[in-house]
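Marked as duplicate of an earlier ticket. Keeping the data here for the record.
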Amino acid sequence: MLQNTPLKIMYLSPAGGSRGDGNNIFAAMAEQNKRPGTEVHIVSPPPDDGLFTHIEYRSYEAIVTRGIVRGVRAAAKEGFDGLAIGCFYDTALHDAREISGEMMVTAPCVASCEIAASLSNRFGIIVGRRKWVHQMHSTVAANGYEDRLSGFYHVELGVNDFQTDHDRTANLLIEAGRKAVELDYAEAVILGCTMEFGFHRKLEDELGVPVIDPSIAALKRAEYGALLKRQCGWKPSRKWSCEAPPEDEIARFGGFDNGEAFAGRLVVEAA
């Protein structure tokens, strides 16, 4: 019976497979935070879609978008219940949803904002570099959360820089969090990037407000959406702006289903 089968969630990290143990870290995150009845697959696009260790630039996003779209289509055909795209830019989220069939698809920024807004009236977002703010602010506004946002607090660290000196990174994140909470009265804080899973709990102890880890938020939101579909019958819309491309055109144009969709796969079992 479907209700008794494990939920299958895919965590698609655009750059995790090129960061050495990147996908192992996401697998550990899933192991610690998923429901007992959820099976999580951690994947990244194949090397042909770019050996990125980060996608901080729009041009990088443009290259990796093809891999995300192909991966989402492959996951939908495999019968996954939900999928999280692992980048706080929410890269290719709307593109991916078009091609996702009945599978729920989310990403870290929108998922984190949804959770923060359910825990507080006003939240701040700590990000690595000022470079990121314009694009992330646009995403927050497009999802209807601009009025809840106290601001962005950048620490001028790139994605790779977060891992070079954990003590320095931690101090910068704590300082940024204090600005958000004590100067701008944020009642919750979202990490736009973090140095290690579990750090959000340390930051909560320092700030005294909820701190949302975006990877956990994306995973849990995908899981929750999949549960709503299974238990309540709420499936993604395919009307009007949510219309999926015609299958005959996909077959005629090509490029969606050719070759391998993923570079390796780590599976966190449902037990």
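See parent ticket for discussion. Residues 109-213 form a domain with the Rossmann fold fold (CATH 3.40.50.12500).
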